[in-house]
């Protein structure tokens, strides 16, 4: 074994590094070096691209940053690979020929493909409701209609209609009561 070669860990563009505080002119407001040390224990994944000082507390954040900002994926960086990466900043392409959409993250492609397949994996769990959704966030928004208390109440005299989302209240006020938003 040749001990002069860097270890795989040292070669990795995603290697964990000790946190280095940003330059004094770019110090985040919440950074306090005299605090309990919580800030120093985070942001351990540093981008090693020349001239880039971004750092992240999760390796996934670093990977997404390097893919989006520098056109890089996982692996080494030969000149041929760098050329391929720079021409593929959206490497996840929809396999449906008529579509042609591409994405920077695999999860976005997976969610998008449900438009083609009709898959709706997120089902409402309330009794008597058979709605299903392609995204968890849409299910969570829907489930609010089953809440007994509506947090956003119309204050128009003799109305009192309740809503689970502020935007729906504002739409109601404009359409029903002709209240102009400020």
UniProtKB/TrEMBL annotation:
InterPro entries: Znf_C2H2_sf, Znf_C2H2_type. SUPFAM superfamilies: beta-beta-alpha zinc fingers (SSF57667). Signal peptide: none annotated. Pfam families: zf-C2H2. It comes from the Eukaryota. Residues 45-70, 92-121, 122-151, 152-177 form the C2H2-type domain. Keywords: Metal-binding, Repeat, Zinc, Zinc-finger. Residues 1-19 have a biased composition (Polar residues). Residues 1-35 are annotated as: Disordered. This is C2H2-type domain-containing protein. The lineage of its organism: Eukaryota, Fungi, Fungi incertae sedis, Mucoromycota, Mucoromycotina.
